[in-house]
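Customer escalation, tier 2.

The customer says the design service returned an amino acid string that "doesn't look like it belongs to this structure." They asked us to rerun it and document both sides in this ticket. The original structure tokens are below, unchanged.
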């Protein structure tokens, strides 16, 4: 489970600002629909800033051969402090990922100035497998069947068929939770 920032948000204490609203985005990095959803994710991030904690949750689909490796690579990018830029760059290359495989994952890491050797090692040693597997298992447990799927305040919103109206629904829920 990856946060919007490399560090976790501290728990809310009396007198401190309220904890952010959490939006889980069940995503697959070889999915064209997830690429299309990026505009909504960017808009929500811009609209709410730190008040909305947008978390990438992995749900690699069997039909996409390189999705599982891409999820592991994304976790390495989060570990190296460039998670969302990496995710966005890989999603911009879903077609290339499908045809060229893991080379694309390493090329993106190189372009972002990340430690490519560490990426390669992470893909070989499987250090991020547990995170990806746990996300996938949780997604299945709550009824995720495709990507993107959003979960906010316990409500699951399926964006795999259409993104129409989802950002408005997420905004409505976030505003209610934030008292906006």
């Amino acid at each position: 489970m990856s946060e919007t920032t490399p560090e976790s948000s501290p728990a809310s204490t009396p007198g401190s600002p309220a904890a952010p609203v959490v939006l889980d985005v069940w995503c697959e990095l070889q999915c064209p629909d997830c690429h299309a959803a990026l505009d909504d994710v960017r808009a929500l991030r811009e609209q709410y800033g730190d008040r909305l904690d947008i978390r990438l949750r992995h749900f690699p689909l069997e039909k996409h051969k390189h999705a599982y490796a891409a999820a592991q690579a994304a976790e390495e990018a989060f570990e190296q402090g460039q998670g969302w830029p990496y995710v966005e760059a890989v999603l911009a290359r879903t077609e290339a990922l499908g045809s060229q495989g893991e080379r694309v994952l390493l090329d993106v890491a190189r372009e972002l100035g990340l430690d490519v050797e560490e990426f390669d090692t992470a893909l070989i040693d499987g250090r991020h497998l547990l995170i990806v597997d746990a996300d996938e298992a949780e997604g299945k447990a709550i009824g995720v069947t495709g990507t993107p799927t959003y979960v906010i305040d316990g409500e699951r919103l399926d964006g795999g068929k259409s993104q129409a109206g989802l950002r408005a629904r997420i905004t409505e829920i976030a505003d209610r939770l934030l008292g906006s």
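Tier 2 assessment: The sequence is consistent with the input. The longest helix spans residues 32-48. The chain has eight helices and four strands. Sent an explanation to the customer and offered a walkthrough call.
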